[in-house]
Design brief:
The chain is an alpha/beta fold. It has one domain: Vaccinia Virus protein VP39 (Rossmann fold, 3-Layer(aba) Sandwich), CATH 3.40.50.150. It has nine helices and seven strands. β2, α5 and β3 form a beta-alpha-beta unit. α2 packs antiparallel against α7 and α7 packs antiparallel against α8. It is globular and about 45 Å long.
């Protein structure tokens, strides 16, 4: 591990609105929400996306340049969906599955114990993606699914991911986005406002955390906006692939050699 780092960019926002706010506001809220929903998270994803989320994960892994020699860091890996999909489809050399919320990793540990890693060496670690405790140039691949949207210090998080990637390594991100078609965009916003909280209440009995999730999706930059954030963090060859009409997008970006 590296020693504590001083970051030059301390800009932070309220992830529900995109407005300037102390980082603790969003960090504490995210910790509580995902602790409360950890054991229902997979069910919610499956139902609220009408099963589409599995295909999104497949697109993320299939588009990621993971090889059998890749050392992979999964940031905001939650219950392990991305990591275990990588084990199923690409079998990297090793994976560190990390998340900010210990309760999510408890679910991932059960899946690991059941053998979903398919023999791929995997370590679980509590990690804040805005302050990554690993050495410079440590990983060939960093994956992140629905993580950057919940980080109040996004520029700092991207800077940290850039730092720990090896030159030539890739950051591979699946995140909710903005459908380019106006009618689809309108329908999606209505679904975010009403559908997501209803599914959340159905799965967990409480809609409050899912009202936040819907707001955070609406407040997140569109495909080009996030691509520009990646470029400003130093990444090159930034590309994205829309899934389900642009409801979400897979971004792939490289750290220059």
């Amino acid at each position: 591990m590296t020693e504590s780092k001083e970051h030059t960019n301390e800009h932070s926002i309220d992830t529900a609105t995109g407005e300037n706010a102390p980082a603790e506001l969003s960090s504490d809220r995210v910790q509580k929400i995902f602790t409360d929903i950890a054991w229902d998270y997979e069910r919610f994803n499956r139902l609220s996306s009408f099963g589409q989320y599995v295909g999104w994960l497949e697109t993320l892994i299939d588009n990621s340049p993971i090889t059998s020699d890749s050392r992979m860091l999964d940031i905001a890996g939650g219950t392990g969906d991305v990591s275990f999909m990588a084990c199923s489809r690409k079998k990297p050399k090793e994976i560190i599955l990390s998340d900010y919320t210990p309760a999510m990793l408890e679910v991932a540990q059960e899946r690991l114990d059941e053998g979903e890693n398919r023999g791929v060496p995997m370590e679980l670690a509590v990690v804040d993606g805005q302050d990554i405790p690993y050495e410079d140039d440590s990983f060939d691949i960093i994956t992140m699914s629905y993580g950057i949207r919940n980080m109040p210090k996004r520029e700092q998080a991207l800077s940290e991911m850039f730092r720990v990637l090896k030159p030539g390594g890739s950051l591979c991100v699946l995140e909710f986005s903005t459908p380019p078609n106006p009618l689809m965009r309108l329908g999606y916003r209505l679904y975010l406002r009403w559908g997501i909280p209803l599914w959340g209440k159905f799965c967990t009995g409480d809609a409050s955390g899912f009202i936040y999730l819907a707001k955070s999706i609406k407040a997140f930059p569109d495909q080009e906006g996030f691509a520009q954030m990646l470029r400003e963090a130093g990444f090159t060859d930034v590309e994205w692939t829309n899934v389900t009409f642009g409801v979400a997008a897979v971004h792939i970006a490289k750290k220059p050699l």
